[in-house]
Design a protein that fits this description.
By secondary structure, the protein is α/β, with parallel strands linked by helices. It has three domains: 2-12 and 40-312, Alpha-Beta Barrel (7-stranded beta/alpha barrel), CATH 3.20.110.20; 326-409, no CATH class; 428-526, no CATH class. It is built from 23 helices and twelve strands.
Length: 529
């Protein structure tokens, strides 16, 4: 017996405003809430959403609901799964709440599973040593699914099927039992994608997308140059029936059914006929992802190092669709660097804008790939050329960054920023001399003060004389006042090593106390008893 596991990705981005320029901000007072309508082209976003709802979402939902009812009465129920992004559900609430009701009807059949994912369809799983932003977005999505669909997902699909061992560990830590990624040849090493696997050193179950059979529908269905054109449900069911394994995972963009392949292509008729054609084969059964991982024992382990992260995009099937060229890397790095700053401020509107700018689609439009992958990137982009997309994206990111820095100039936020924990790569590494690192690295003023108490005094002398302390504190931490005090201490050449330690430590401890007094005073003011 072989299970057929059909999964749909349902997502529409908030596309950026191509005419955004700082001149737009000079026309009257602009609030943080106004920025959403300035950063994003919501006229275009509504148009695309409503077109897709008319051509794809409602017709496909109705066909699937009808086929579920029909297959139930025949005793062999049609089952499937959806991964619906949080920003897609926001668009439903804004522009067509009836679509949420349509998905609720599907949920009520008992034959549809809804998968967890990142709320903002982001690449957050790729950055941050603790992946805290990824976890926050997953939890946000979990709450949204509960609020809108009264559903609590047990199975998770990461954005763009991004997967590696570290992501798998994070997913398992969040309590999920299974996930799905691309059945890529370099990961399988000659094995079949049509089995249940488990993550390396983990109990997390991993399903693998059969990209050949999935892409026969998603990409090749309406191609008249394809040697299998035209594809009908009878032929496709025969291909499934001839595929060996525990499970065949078909993972497809939902927009395939009416938007990417227009109704005139016969795609809706294909969808309508497929459940019954598959059910004609006695050894094929429709299953949801959670049912599959409960029914089958993993046959082996999947081992994907972080340097070999998998996705379902392009020929490479790696993250290069989003972070494969200098323009993409510049924007991606800007997004990452803003995390500590915007979260330090704690302003919900700014955090929300920052997260909308994390949508993987924005980086996808910056791809410079040629050939077939390039055609796909261009098809989805509404931004013109990748260079034009970069110009718009970088202008908006720069504007948001400037606003964040303006907020941080407020005394209470400036103090909080100086006390923050710095991200990996921005810490201070202590050394004994030019050739001997101590192995100690600090990422905040607090850690700096604690290490000053115990590190070898020779290290303190070495860094003070070279000006390392003052440079890190001024240029990385951003505290000119403490940097100036350390410069003054350095000028006293007669200080012995232990005396120097005491002076630098005392200045640092005093400055931390001053900063904490500012932040504590503000906290009391904001939260009076």
């Amino acid at each position: 017996m072989t299970d057929v596991c059909l999964m749909f990705e349902v997502h529409q981005p908030f596309r950026l405003n191509r005419i955004f320029h700082s001149d737009l901000l000079s026309k009257g007072k602009v609030t943080k809430k106004d920025l959403f309508d300035l950063y994003f082209d919501n006229g275009l976003n509504r148009y695309v959403f409503e077109r897709a709802a008319r051509k794809c979402y409602f017709p496909a939902n109705n066909i699937i609901l009808e086929q579920i009812d029909k297959s139930k009465s025949a005793g062999k129920p049609f089952k499937l799964a959806y991964g619906i992004s949080g920003v897609f559900l926001e668009q439903c609430e804004l522009w067509n709440p009836d679509l949420i009701e349509s998905f609720k009807q599907l949920a009520e059949t008992g034959c549809v599973e809804f998968m967890e994912e990142t709320y903002y369809h982001s690449l957050a799983s790729l950055y941050g040593a603790d992946r805290s932003e990824f976890m926050e977005q997953v939890k946000m999505h979990r709450q949204l699914m509960k609020d809108l669909l009264d559903y609590e997902p047990k199975f998770i699909e990461n954005t763009e099927l991004l997967y590696n061992n570290a992501i798998a560990k994070t997913i398992e830590g969040l309590g999920y039992k299974g996930t799905v990624t691309e059945g890529i040849d370099k990961t399988l090493l000659g094995r079949s994608p049509n089995y249940v696997y488990k993550a390396k050193d983990s109990n997390l179950r991993v399903l693998l997308r059969n990209y050949r059979l999935s892409d026969d529908i998603g990409f090749r269905f309406s191609s008249t140059e394809w040697n299998e054109y035209p594809l009908d449900a009878t032929k496709y069911a025969r291909w499934l029936a001839g595929t060996q394994g525990q499970v065949i995972v078909l993972f497809i963009d939902y927009e395939t059914f009416g938007e990417h392949h227009w109704p005139e292509s016969g795609i809706h008729e294909f969808l309508k006929a497929l459940p019954s054609e598959v059910n004609k084969w006695h050894h094929l059964n429709w299953r949801t992802p959670s049912e599959v991982i409960e029914r089958h024992t993993p046959v082996d382990e999947i081992d994907v190092h972080e340097y070999n992260t998998v996705s379902w995009a392009d020929i490479e099937r790696d993250p290069s669709a989003w972070i494969g060229n200098p323009m993409q890397n510049i924007c991606y790095d800007s997004l990452k660097e803003l995390e500590q700053l915007v979260k330090g401020i704690g302003d919900k509107d700014l955090i929300r804008l920052w997260r909308y700018l994390q949508l993987s689609d924005h980086l996808y439009y910056l791809s410079m790939k040629g050939g077939g992958p390039g055609d796909v990137h261009n098809y989805f982009s509404s931004m013109g050329s990748p260079v034009e997309a970069f110009a718009v994206y970088s202008r908006i990111l720069s504007d948001l960054e400037a606003r964040i820095h303006l907020e941080l100039e407020k005394p209470e936020l400036a103090a909080k920023r100086l006390l923050r924990r710095l991200p990996a790569g921005m810490g201070f590494a202590f050394s004994y001399d030019f050739a001997r690192p101590s192995g100690l690295t600090v990422h905040s003023l607090g850690e700096f003060a604690s290490t000053l108490k115990t590190v070898d005094a020779r290290s303190i002398r070495f860094h003070t004389e070279k000006g390392d302390f003052e440079r890190w504190i001024r240029q990385v931490v951003g505290d000119d006042k403490l940097a100036d005090e350390i410069v003054a201490i350095k000028l006293n050449k007669r200080l012995k090593a232990e005396a120097l330690r005491k002076k630098v430590l005392a200045a640092t401890a005093k400055r931390i106390k001053q900063l904490k007094k500012i932040t504590d005073g503000i906290s009391v003011g904001l939260n009076p008893k």
